[in-house]
Structure formats: C-alpha cells, structure tokens
Amino acid sequence: MMTLERPELSPDFTMEDLYRLREYNSLRHYKMSLEELKDDIEKIAKVGLERIDQMRKEKHLQQNSSQ
Q: For residues 24 and 29, what is the distance between their CA atoms, to the nearest angstrom?
C-alpha cells in the first residue's frame, strides 16, 4: 500500500502548491467518516485561528511601539 506524503510547498505558495495541497487533502479525507473529517478540520482550523490571533497581537504591538 502506498503511503500518502504531505506535499512540499514553495516559499512563494504558488497556484501549483494550492493544487497539490487540495489533492493531498482530498485523498486524505476520502475514506474518513463524517466525524473524523469534522475532528480533522476543527483541529486544523484551531491552529489557523491561533496563528491569526498571534499575527494580530504582533501587529498591535508594532503599531503601539511606533507611536
């Protein structure tokens, strides 16, 4: 059985990277149950939201330090 490997993405995140990532996720989610899919998406969304929150905090600190 072939193992699914996460695609390597370029530093510039091109459209080709987006296509590879979508294909990878599609194949990864293909045989998941609805509950497994929901858990997987929630886990990844939580990481994304934490990153956004951190970026907002850093931006806020930069704005306050330049005043």
A: 9
